[in-house]
Amino acid sequence: MERGARAVALLGLVVAVSGCFQRQAAPLKNFEPEAFDSTANYSRHYETAPAQACEAARRALLSQGYVLSAASGEQVTGRKFFQPNAEVHVPLEMRVVCAPEGEDSAIVFAVAVQEVHAVRKSNNSASLGVGGLGSLSLPIEGGNDGMVKVGTQTVSDPRFYGSFFDLLGEHLEP
């Protein structure tokens, strides 16, 4: 009988492992392949020095409630936090790089990356083992809630970047 139980356990293990190899990754949804064309969602040209452009970017982010983690004459990084419901938390990080382009002009690159964190519950269990008889594992009611990162995505909406660059331009005006 013990030999039969081992055979059944081994067969179950083989089926479980083979199932792991047969599964294919789910296709990506809303995936936008890279085009690398001349449409510039992520950059704009300004007739100003790069340091002034980055200062305008800093002011634009601050005016919209971003918390700045870095700011210099060459780049600005800020984060803003959203919580669409009690179980989801979405930090949005915006990075802006200001580079010289010719005399007294700058090209400003901006990219926003959002992460999605969700509440995950982890149940606890307790095990009791008695020599010769085996072990018993029982779930304990309750558990711990924790935020787990479930996704990261670069924001690609041209309206988002358009509104940012328009606000940056307003902060450049005298």
UniProtKB/TrEMBL annotation:
State the signal peptide span. Answer: 1-25
Protein species of origin: Paenacidovorax monticola
List UniProt keywords, sorted A-Z. Signal
Lineage, uppermost ranks: Bacteria, Pseudomonadati, Pseudomonadota, Betaproteobacteria, Burkholderiales
The protein in question is named DUF2242 domain-containing protein
* InterPro entries according to UniProt: DUF2242
Q: Which domain of life is it from?
A: Bacteria
Q: Which Pfam families match?
A: DUF2242
